[in-house]
Write a structure and sequence with these properties.
- The structure is a single chain.
- By secondary structure, this protein is an alpha/beta fold.
- It folds into 2 domains: about 230 residues, Spore Coat Polysaccharide Biosynthesis Protein SpsA, Chain A (Alpha-Beta Complex); about 120 residues.
- The chain is built from 12 helices and 7 strands.
- The chain has a 7-stranded mixed beta sheet with strand order 3-2-1-4-6-5-7.
- Helix 2 links the parallel strand 2 and strand 3.
- Helix 5 packs parallel to helix 8, helix 9 packs antiparallel against helix 10 and helix 11 runs antiparallel to helix 12.
- The longest helix is centred in the last third of the chain and has 33 residues.
- It is elongated and about 75 Å long.
Length: about 350
């Protein structure tokens, strides 16, 4: 039997929050209508899964999706939504910054206002419990998004919203499922037909755990611009990966200059040191920026950087072979080097995207 509302909550190391959050939801909703909670966990390393399993054992309307080889907030929320069987789907964070008290407001408004989507905006009531600088940056980015994409929404970066399941299922194949901002993805993918509205809400502070989305506002903004402008021609991650690689070239040249020109080390040792520094730079910047939503931490970081060394070593070989053969055939030095670099970058991107920062 179809329920009235499914609440989708993505988790990653939220052991101190999930029990508090669920108790608040349960006390709020009670038996006013039929509802379910679907937790989607992206490989928590603490006791989050144990906490959710205990909740599930005591409540027959709670479900858990445990993802082992797939990561990313948007894709987690989408997977949870597609697993539901409810008239409406509500998305919220697990960190208690989305107060459950607003669930009823969102639900009642979408039922009565004939809208496809209702979101909770941090900027309608001009009040926030988050840091002033982050609040102002969010407003700036939001205003830029509105101007660039010709939309009118006061908080396109919120993760707290409710949507008709029929509308979501109809348009889900148009979503990129990358990054953090599912709401903005939905609005931009359906902006000619979607009917949406907002309610004001106060964004609370995080009391337990650490945010997984460092610098996420700027990263989301840059990623989304590239995705919507150039995504039809090249994968957005490849564009960002190539940009990082270009910066890595300058890092290598600077490192080589200091090792060989300043410290007078041999050419071979200087080259080895500069390559090692550039590879570390590339890996860390890709981990923070290009794959921010799939960021490797802890033991996965160590495994990831070793895989990065491995794949990029082969990329360097393919780069060299391609450039060498083209040069012998054409005698065009710089064109040969350029094409060799492209071949190497495509290999590196393909391998790391498939096996290192894997999101599918």
């Amino acid at each position: 039997m179809k329920k009235d509302i499914a609440i989708i909550i993505a988790t990653l190391n939220e052991e101190n929050n999930v029990n508090i959050l669920f108790d608040k939801i349960k006390n709020l909703l009670k038996n006013d209508f039929s509802w379910e909670v679907i937790f989607v966990d992206d490989g928590s390393q603490d006791k989050t899964l144990d906490q959710i399993k205990n909740i599930r054992n005591e409540n027959n309307n709670v479900f858990l999706i445990k993802r082992l080889n797939t990561r990313g907030l948007s894709s987690a929320l989408i997977q949870g939504a597609l697993s539901s069987n409810s008239k409406y789907i509500l998305f919220m964070d697990a960190d208690l910054q989305h107060n459950p008290d607003y669930i009823l407001q969102l639900y009642n408004k979408i039922k009565t206002d004939n809208k496809n989507l209702i979101s909770a905006s941090r900027f309608l009531n001009k009040k926030s419990n988050v840091k002033y600088f982050r609040y102002k940056i969010s407003i700036l980015v939001n205003n830029l998004i509105n101007k660039i994409f010709s939309i009118k929404i006061s908080d396109s970066l919120t993760g707290y919203f409710i949507i008709e399941s029929s509308f979501f299922n109809k348009h889900v194949n148009n979503l990129s499922a990358k990054g953090f901002k599912l709401l903005l993805d939905i609005v931009l993918s359906t902006k000619k037909i979607i009917k949406f509205d907002e309610i004001p809400f106060t964004f609370d502070q995080r009391y337990f755990g650490k945010s997984k989305l460092n610098n996420k506002i700027i990263i989301d903004f840059v990623y989304l611009i590239i995705e919507k402008v150039f995504g039809r021609y090249l994968p957005t991650r490849y564009i960002l990966y190539s940009f990082v690689g270009t910066m890595g070239i300058f890092i290598q040249l600077i490192s080589f200059y200091f090792a060989h020109g300043v410290f007078k080390l041999s050419f071979t040792i200087s080259e080895f040191i500069s390559i090692f520094i550039a590879m570390n730079f590339n890996f860390n910047l890709n981990n923070i920026f290009t794959y921010a939503d799939l960021r490797l931490r802890g033991k996965y970081y160590l495994k990831g950087i070793l895989l990065f060394y491995f794949f990029c070593s082969f990329g360097a070989i393919f780069n060299f072979i391609t450039a060498e053969n083209l040069y012998k055939m054409s005698d065009l030095t710089y064109i040969s080097v350029f094409i060799g670099a492209i071949v190497g970058s495509i290999w590196n991107y393909s391998m790391n995207n498939s096996f290192n920062w894997r999101d599918n």
